[in-house]
Amino acid sequence: MANVEIYTSPSCGYCHAAKRLLTQKGVGFVETDVSRDAAQKQVMMRRANGHRTVPQIFIDGNHVGGYDDLNALDRAGKLDPMLAG
């Protein structure tokens, strides 16, 4: 199984949608709340090539993007192979 990381904030609907999609697929993930941690938000932005919005999702260390990107991978049939590791 792939290592999945997701940077979130509690009030973000897209964050909840991304976590729901991953959970439905039976995938565990490490969640980092950046809403109150400026240092973690800087780490996220550096890893995500300057992207400031949440969620920012990484699979096996590779930046996937946000929820729309995750969902597009799923619709294209590319997400499951990535998650399988």
Describe the structure.
The protein is globular, with a radius of gyration of 12 Å. With 85 residues, it is of the alpha+beta class. Helices cover 44% and strands 20% of the residues. It contains 4 helices and 4 strands; from the N terminus they run βαβαββαα. A 4-stranded mixed beta sheet has the order 2-1-3-4, sandwiched between helices. The protein has a single domain (4-84), classed as 3-Layer(aba) Sandwich (Glutaredoxin), CATH 3.40.30.10.
Could you give a short description of this structure?
Helices cover 44% and strands 20% of the residues. It is of the alpha+beta class and 85 residues long. It is globular, with a radius of gyration of 12 Å.
